[in-house]
Amino acid sequence: MSIYFDNGSTSFPKAPGVGEAVAGLIAGGAFNINRGGYAGAYEVAGTVYETREMLAQLFSFSGECKNVVFMPSVTYALNTVLKGFLRPGDHVVTTSMEHNAVMRPLVQLAHTGVLFDAAGADCRGVLDPDALEALITPRTRAVVVTAASNVCGTLMPLRDIAEICSRRHVRLIVDSAQAAGLFPLSMDELGADALTFTGHKSLLGPQGIGGMIVRPDFAGEIEPVISGGTGSMSDSEEVPPFLPDRFEPGTLNLPGIIGLHCALRFVQSTGIDALRNHDIALTGRFLKGVRTLPGVRAVGLPGTEGRAPIVSLDFTGRDNAAVSFTLDSEYGIMTRCGLHCAPRAHKTLGTFPHGTVRFAFGYGNTEAEVDTCLDVLRRIVQA
Ligand SMILES: Cc1ncc(COP(=O)(O)O)c(C=O)c1O
């Protein structure tokens, strides 16, 4: 038996056809775009362009799709925006629920004189937007926030935060890692300045491809952290000022983009509502079952309202890591234990430093798998 409940880390299975699409490109002619002047390269370039269009559509961005920039991951995109935009003396506001993809760049920047404050969520991971607004000062240049906690799934009040950012004239940077492909995220409605994404979680694509959608006026204020050849402006040693080249130096991960293209087709044709409803129904079933288990606390919100399909369990009186190990080694149930790269979130939820066992459901999971897992957990807690 093998049950995969680590979709918060990376989704499995990937969307149908993704593996074949990636392999097909490599076997059939992995030609570089923007460099080769032959039909095969133009064909790949066409698919890359189409992938930008699909992402612009998915995130309701009505601007030009050249503002969709490919990078290896959301981590790279967040680093690019934060390190390229903030200068010593600038202030940035974030939350206590962030992944280290946000926190580590901020702490690095703090060593160079950038100031940051993190608005504290409550012990369910719920953030009061007023608490965030109270931290904004005249020096605040940006708010950076995750759309959903990767530890307990709690959704952040993005609309309220967006309204605050617009009223207080600060840039809004969104980390969509745990929400993209499941929840509607609209660049236009939010007025977000940069929406960063990663292709391998609920977008159901391969690892190693992600990026950001960035508003053109904001892009001009972000100094690229990495620079190099782009196949454009080759007579110049200056970084091209235009998008996407400004942030896409070096050879792109074309197999990754082709895989993501295939995955996005699946997400589009299935619909994010259907994908979310499936995952959330499993989350609800799991939460209901967990409530009947003695000595187990599900951290975060009590139900599925306001949460992504993630459940973190704290086994009181037991070693969470040992539970996760038993689940895998004896029952083939794959989860993730520990702090999930988000120590501050665990401090907020009261699960630091021991961490939790995280169950993250995906489109490949079934009710039968959830029920099997609940039976196994019952056996473990009664042992
Ligand atoms: C909320 C959040 N942000 C950022 C990341 C980093 O994603 P990646 O490793 O794809 O850059 C993750 C991954 O777990 C995440 O959950």
Q: How would you briefly describe this protein structure?
A:
This protein has helices at 18-29, 39-58, 74-85, 100-110, 129-133, 158-168, 187-190, 216-219, 254-270, 272-290, 320-331, 343-349, 367-382; strands spanning 3-4, 68-71, 91-95, 115-119, 140-146, 171-175, 194-198, 210-214, 296-299, 310-315, 333-334, 336-338, 356-360. The chain is α/β, with parallel strands linked by helices. The protein folds into two domains: 3-12 and 271-382, Aspartate Aminotransferase, domain 1 (Alpha-Beta Complex), CATH 3.90.1150.10; 18-270, Type I PLP-dependent aspartate aminotransferase-like (Major domain) (Aspartate Aminotransferase, domain 2).
Blueprint of the fold:
Blueprint lengths: L2 E2 L13 H12 L9 H20 L9 E4 L2 H12 L5 E5 L4 H11 L4 E5 L9 H5 L6 E7 L11 H11 L2 E5 L11 H4 L3 E5 L11 E5 L1 H4 L34 H17 L1 H19 L5 E4 L10 E6 L4 H12 L1 E2 L1 E3 L4 H7 L6 E5 L6 H16 L1
Helix pairs in contact: 1-9, 2-9, 3-4, 10-13, 11-13
Bound molecules: pyridoxal-5'-phosphate (PLP).
Pyridoxal-5'-phosphate binds next to helix 3.
